[in-house]
Every structure is written in structure tokens, then in C-alpha cells.
Specification:
The complex is a heterodimer of chains A (248) and B (328). Helix content of chain A is 38%, strand content 25%. With 248 residues, chain A is an alpha/beta fold. Chain A has a single domain, classed as 3-Layer(aba) Sandwich (Rossmann fold), CATH 3.40.50. In chain A, the strands form two sheets. A six-stranded mixed β-sheet of chain A has the order 6-7-8-3-9-10, sandwiched between helices. A four-stranded antiparallel β-sheet of chain A has the order 2-1-4-5, covered by helices on one side. Chain B has two domains: 211 residues, no CATH class; 77 residues, no CATH class. The chains are: A alpha/beta (248), B mainly alpha (328). Bound molecules: adenosine-5'-diphosphate and magnesium ion.
Chain lengths: 248, 328
Amino acid sequence: MTLLKIHNLKKSFGGVKALNGCNFNIEKNKITALIGPNGCGKSTLFNVINKLEYQESGTITFLNYNISKIRPYLVSELGISRTFQYPTLFENLTIRDHIEMAMFNDDQKFFKSFFIKLFGLKKNNDKKIIEILNLVGLEKPLNTLGSDLSYGQRKLLDLAIAIAHPHKLIMLDEPVAGINPKLRQKIKEILIKLKEMGETIIVIEHDMNFIMDIADHVYVMESGQNLVEGKPKEIQNNKKVLEAYLGE
Amino acid sequence: MGTIQKNNIIETLKDSQKAFWLILFVIDIIFIFLCLQGILNEYFAHVLVVINIYLILSISLNLVMGFTGLLNLSHIALFGVGAYTSALMIMNGYSYLLSLLLAMLLPGVFAVLLMFATRKLKSDYLMLVTFGFSFLLYSIFISWTSLTRGPLGLNNIPKISFFDFTIYSTNQFLVFSTIMAIVSIIIIYNITKSSFGRLLQAVRDDEISLKLLGKNIELIKFKAMFISGLFAGLAGSLFAHYSQYIEPNSFWIVDLIFLLTVLIVGGLASNRGAVFGVIIIMILNESLRLLPIPSEILGPTRQIIYALILILILLYRPKGIFGRIDLK
Ligand SMILES: Nc1ncnc2c1ncn2[C@@H]1O[C@H](COP(=O)(O)OP(=O)(O)O)[C@@H](O)[C@H]1O
Ligand SMILES: [Mg+2]
């Protein structure tokens, strides 16, 4: 079943055609990888799906809703979680705060949130939070501030946030970029485990070797367009792909 | 971890947050007691009333400026809207409670409109627009003479009275304004410690990540501005009925600078800072009276001193005394 369908998407910045008519179908319960040389438009694609940017033309359909023109928080509410290539955390908030904000949305309700605080009715969510942190292997006290985390820990927390947020699709933007080989292996295992749990994942990755073991389907992009698609094995030996990568 | 009941004074004092509020509360009660007993004269009671009014202003401005990171420079203008609304309503025969209600709602609505006008723009524009709004309101207070009597101001504003009860003396007003200030502080303190308050801080730190968690940032900002505006209006109403005389110059940039100094000295995004800042700056302000400075140059001298304090804070303690975020 197709969860997310992207049709003929175009987006340019000044003269740069970051997306130039690309098409994708993201299947449920699968890991779809999106690879391609630097600057080929992968992150822009994510930004347009999340509505941090709006496309010039083309449509995006998620769960049969047309999400081409809606506001970013609605995309998120429909069930799309995402991580960033360079995760930005809330520096003054703790790990617990981050995960709770991702899990629940009633913090936006002023009166509810106020009276819960006033009468000390706040539920303890630590068990659920620790479960998610264990899943991604982030072993830090829950009251650690965002500003006290290393780059690798930030990547893991960002992943934990995406998992904690109620979702039907997780989009990961270069989850292992700038990460040491040991943690890289760990993240690979996490992604495989997530898939076993029935998650649908799109993962952007610059490094072809990383996705070969985990992806069910691979799209290769070049200059904002589809280059080829197929199973990892088919992609690995494709002449066009090798050219695109070597010609970088 | 559930909430652990603390029944030991020492334990409570160890927790510096609680100790701060407790000590402050006790000192406040002592001062009020001394005023009511006539041991401290009316001048002290007057200073305490002014402190109470500024406490409401500073803690509510801190909610949007410190916690939410919105550069709102309209707070004194909104304070003026509250003061004029409350005064004019009462002078036209409406009850105090109704006047107070409108004096709070109107600034709240104005604050939301200011936010609404700049919602699509970068955050710096809010600063420009709210600063412009301060000038606009000032000129309205001055030039809409049929309503505000212009530079002459409104005088003989009635005292507060509700349920057959009238607040006559400065001491009575001291008690009333203290209750209002404490209630305001408790409300805003609890907002900042609630999950909604956490969201406000997240808006300040990073809007993009927050959008992707499904939060409606615009709506959150509207709510913050509305709440802040309500309290600016409350302070305005208290001020109008306390001094019984208001004029456009009561709501001018000078007071805005005073308020900003208070927040910067106390420290943004800290309720303790917002409260402590008012007390420190007011004590300083009043001590200057004791110096042999001619009254004509007292005003300018104060402004020079505020400017010096601001420079010193920026140089040596950019987070203020209790603050958690850098001035930037
Ligand atoms: N906000 C932006 N403003 C201007 N140009 C941008 C912006 N975002 C991306 N680009 C440009 O669009 C192209 C695609 O970028 P990006 O999507 O980040 O590539 P990738 O993630 O595949 O490395 C690049 O040429 C980049 O410089
Ligand atoms: Mg990228």
C-alpha cells in the first residue's frame, strides 16, 4: 500500500532548481532510501513534504489527503515525523521535556495545562520515555539539558523524538552523517528493529553502503530529478548511479 | 518521581526557588504590617503600591519577552490602554468590576492584533510594530481630547469600590494591590511551569522543530500575547484608580525603558528575576531622592543611571541576575 505519493514536484531557489519534477511512492511498512549526490535536492524534498517550504507545482498525497498546501503543524498532526540532518534541540529544555512535547499535543491547551500544573495533576510519563530512549540507546538522565548533549547524542534524541511523536511515517535526513562507525552500526540496527515493529521509514543517506543492508527500495536522485529506482542490489551495479556518484 | 511533601523549613530553604519566594513573602508581610501599624509612613506604603503595580507589569512582560522570546515593546502602551479604559468606564458610571474586565480584555486584544499583524514576518518586525504602536497610542492619548482630555489628563478618577466596599486610604490600596500582585505572580509562575509554559520556551528556542512536532506556533504566540496584555491592563487599572490622575506622559517611552531595565537587570525568562529586578530598581530609584540632587534634574539623572546599569549588565552579566537566556 502506498502511504505517501509525490507527483511531479518542483521547487527552485532563485535560479537553482532544487526539485525539478520528481516522483516517489513510499510503501507502507518498508524502508525506502533516498540517495544522491550532495545538493541534489534530498533535504529540500523533505522540507517541501513538511511544508517548511512550499512547492511551485506538483502534488503530495499522504493517506489520501492532499497535503500540498496545508500548514506545517497539520502535516505533523496527520502523522509525519522527521529528523534533521543537523538536529537543533531546545537548549534550555531537558530530554524529558523534548520527548513529552513530541508525545502529547495537549500542552497547547492553555487552561488544561495551567490547571494540571496548579493542582499538581501531571502524570508521570517517565516509563514510556525511558522505553523510547532505550530503543534508540540514549542512556542519559531524563533531566539532562539539550545544551549538554554531544552531536551523536543529539542525533539519537532527535530520532527518539521522531519515534515518540504519534506518526505513520518517519522521515530521517542523514541519520548517520558525521557519526562514528560504532554508532553508525547501532543506528542501522535501530532502523531494522523499527521496520520489524511495522514502521514506515524514508531515509536520506549520502553513503550508499549504509542503506544497502537496510532498504527495501531505493530511489536515486540527481539534480532534483529521479535518476533510477529499484532494489538495493539493482542500484548498486547500475551504470548511471556509478556515474552520478563518481562524477561528483 | 512524585511530588515529595516538604514539611521541613530547612529542606524548603535548600530549594532556592522556594526559599526566594518565601523570604520575599515574609519581608512583604512585615512591611505591610509596619505600614498598617503606622510605624512606616504613607510614603513607604506608596512605594510599595508602585512596586506592586510594576511587579504585575514586569512579570507579565517577561512571559512574552523572556519566556516566549517575543520582542514586544508595547507593554507600557497596553498598560495605558488599561488605565484609560478603566478610568473612562468608571467615570461614565460603569461598575468597577466591569471596568476592570474591559480594561484587561482590551489590551489583551490589542496585543493579539499586534502579533497578528506581524505573524508572517520575521520576529524583528514585532519589535518595530510594537514600538510604533507605543507612539501611536501616545499620540491618541494626547490628541483625542474629547475622550482623554489630551495633555491635561484625566483627574478625579474615582477610587475602587465593589460589593459596597471602597478602597480609600493608601494603606488599604497597599493591601489590595499586594493581593493583586501576588495572585498575578502565582498565575504567571504556574503558567511558566506548566506544559504550556514549556512550549513557550520552545517557541523561543526553535520554531521550526516545534512546527514539526505538530504545534501551532501562531496560536501559541497569540495566547501568550493575550495573557500578557490582560495583566498589563490589570496594572493600568490599578494605577489609574490609585493615582486618580493619568496623563499621556504616564505611558511614555521613559516607562518602557524603566521596565526593560528591570527585566534585563533581573534576568529574562526568570520569574524571580522579573520580581527582583523591580525591587532593586525601585529601591535605587527612591534612594536617589535622598541624594542632594535638584528635582529638575532628578529625571535625567535616573535615566543616566539606568543607562549605566544596562551597560554594566551587558558587559559583566548578560543574563541578568537570575536570567537564563543571553541578551542578543
Ligand atoms: N533555503 C534555501 N535557499 C537557497 N537555496 C537552497 C535552499 N535550500 C536548498 N537550496 C539549494 O537547493 C539545492 C538542493 O539542496 P538540498 O536539498 O539541501 O540538497 P541535499 O540535501 O540533497 O544535499 C542546493 O543547490 C542548495 O544550495
Ligand atoms: Mg541534505
